Amino acid sequence: MPSIFTKIIDREIPADIVYEDDECLAFRDITPKAPTHILVIPKREIVSLADLTDEDEKIVGHCILVAAKVAHSEGLAAGYRVVVNCGSDGGQEVPHLHFHILGGRQMTWPPG
Ligand code: DGP
User: Based on the structure, what is the number of domains in the chain?
Assistant: First the structure.
């Protein structure tokens, strides 16, 4: 069954898309936890970090590079955080790998 993020990729549900290429999509989070909160996802359905295989090395690197480019284009020159929640203890709610870009405020450490 397609994840809600696959429905965003397929334009079955709307999203505020800020970047797209053949391999990935970036869109604004619907419940932002920071002034800028964008999700970068691979178009290929990968459930989580724990499901990665060797063949995913390129797409994961690509998503991180896109996250850095999107952060730059969003003007996050003061810094930002990229987060991947993995599994239930990691706080992952949507079973489609995604990289959170959070910025526009001071981040705290450790995260909750
Ligand atoms: P996580 O807890 O790491 O699985 O984060 C999932 C994020 O996805 C959460 O911050 C809210 C966001 N989200 C969930 N459903 C939608 C949606 O339909 N549209 C958008 N833009 N974001 C969504």
Answer: 1
